[in-house]
Amino acid sequence: MTTSTYATLLPLATASTSGPVAQADRLQNLDMLRGVALLGILLMNIPGFALAERAFDGFRHDPHSANFWTYAVITIFFEGKMRALFSMLFGAGVVLFTLRKEQAGRPVAGLFYRRMGWLVLFGLLQAHLLLWMGDILYFYGIGGMLAFLFRKLPARYLALGVPLVAIIGFVSDTLFFQHIRATRFAYKAAQEVQHQRQPLSAAQQQAIANWQDMEKEFLPNQAEIAAHTRQMKSGYHEVAQRVRHESWLGESKYLVFTIPDVLALMLLGIALFKWGFFTGQWSQSQYLRTAAWGYGLGLPLVLWSFYLSYQRGVGVAAQVAFLESHTVVWSGLIYPAQRIALVLAHASVLLFLYRAGVGQGLMRRLAAVGQMAFTNYIMHTVFCTLIFFGYGLNYYAELQYYQLYFVVLAIWVVQLVVSPLWLKYFLFGPLEWLWRSLTYWQVQPMRRTNTEAGPVPGLVAA
């Protein structure tokens, strides 16, 4: 699809093509979807702020527990789907950012890469200063730089990235799984030599050390969990020592496992934008058919996957037994299929309801949350670290899993109330304003004036 073709998906620009998107030009349905995704991401993130390692082992096999059923609902309907939707919308945002500048023949690459470079820096600050080890901004900045290179490909090629990355991901996960198995069996062989009271070779000593390192990283014992919990319930310095180590592993050692998935979802988002899915150009019947197809395929797959996980058991012993008895985890193929099917179904239902005018007040508030997604995402970290970590209210490892979602609900209410109220008086969220000002190397207008064109996002109908 050419620039002139998909330009018809958007209203004509009323602001300079070299500056930020004007308020009248915003696609409110995209903001609404972004708001849903942003709030939904907190459902998955809050256990990382609040629960000790392996806390799920205590209830994942107990159907009589409120924790179990909360976990089941979150896993089946939301786990992975909200992040996927947010990534897809980020991809659509790549097109939105570049489109009008390219139409005017203005250079956009330098501007865009500066924008992504700042996002990488914001991600590093969130991880290492605000102390959230689950940051996504760092990866989105890198993924966005890569997605920019593919943005003009036909939609059908962009969409192929998802199955291609799913296959590559399955192969790489399988190779990593087999590497762990080999490390485990080398450890057991060395242990057998020890039990026979024979001297260990240097290779056998290294095999024991390698497995012990893996255990510390992936299968911490109760003593290690207790030590980490005490650390998270301590002061800022102690918490930072742990969080920065974990964050750095994700940003370096395991970066290669994260970026392909982020990139594939962004490219799918660009494809869906070009096809008119995200811009509301599909008919209501098309959205309903997509939802029916997505739920019809996705729900059976995710339920099957959940059952297989339930059968596998919990605890270190169960995981080690599974590791030793399986060479390939074929159920890993279920996840990418059910996730894409369900995220498309969720998005289709939301777009159908939005176009039908259902719940307009809530939709406008969600759009306001989405327009301030950067600020609201960082505020999730601020709220949760101050509630759960030792230098705040110190609720780390104090609440039941299901109780965490009362905290989520409270944060949702705050952001659904504050976001539209803020946008009544200001053009951008505070961090959105800072990001734009840094991107354009020019202080952007902040306060809304009576002459400001376009609707007030989140307060009036799109």
Automatic annotation (TrEMBL):
Q: Does the keyword Transmembrane helix apply?
A: yes
The chain positions of domain DUF418 read: 272-442
Superkingdom of origin: Bacteria
InterPro entries, per the entry:
Bact_Transport_Assoc (IPR052529), DUF418 (IPR007349)
Q: Membrane spanning segments where?
A: 34-56, 68-97, 117-150, 157-177, 254-275, 287-308, 328-354, 366-392, 404-427
The record ties this protein, via PANTHER family, to:
INNER MEMBRANE PROTEIN (PTHR30590:SF2)
Name it.
DUF418 domain-containing protein
* Organism of origin: Hymenobacter setariae
